[in-house]
Amino acid sequence: MTLRDAWLNPPEWTNRVPEVVPLGMATSPYPDRIVAKPGFEKELAQRTLTKLYNQRPAWLAQAHATLDAAVAAAYGWADYSAAMPDDEILRRLLALNLAQNLQRSSPSAPICSPTSAPSSASTSASTCSSTSASTNPAPQAAPSA
User: Fold this and answer.
1) pLDDT per position as a tens digit, 102-139
2) Structural domain of 63
3) Cα–Cα distance between 35 and 110 in angstroms, integer?
4) What's the number of domains the chain is made of?
5) pLDDT confidence of residue 139
6) Which letter, b or e, does each residue of 46-79 get, where b requires 16 or more Cβ atoms within 10 Å of its Cβ?
7) Is residue 14 part of a domain?
């Protein structure tokens, strides 16, 4: 059970009812229904994501801090801290996006890492490596369902 699910649907307040299995299928493709146990209907109705984020319990703040640090590490931002201003994060993400779009449109264009991405919209050889796309491909979008 996820942190989110444990807060929204506490097991002591709810029962999980398996959803119906459509004809011809061995198992149901649908999630279990969450049904309030008798006496917990009103409390469960008050459990919403909006209320959760408005309360901002310590476990939720810690989960977000852990996720933020993991994402920053994946981008290679060794200098990341929770105090990094949103403007700096957005500047880096925009620079990375622009560099990747340039790479997709021109395979011989230099590649910028998230930490070396230039601060302006233009990409220069002095701030980017000249690695070819075959050795450092830009991430591809996942196919849509």
Assistant:
1) 988 876 655 555 554 444 444 333 345 444 444 444 44
2) 3-20+28-68
3) 55
4) 1
5) 45
6) ebeeeeeeeeeeeeeeeeeeeeeeeebeebebee
7) yes
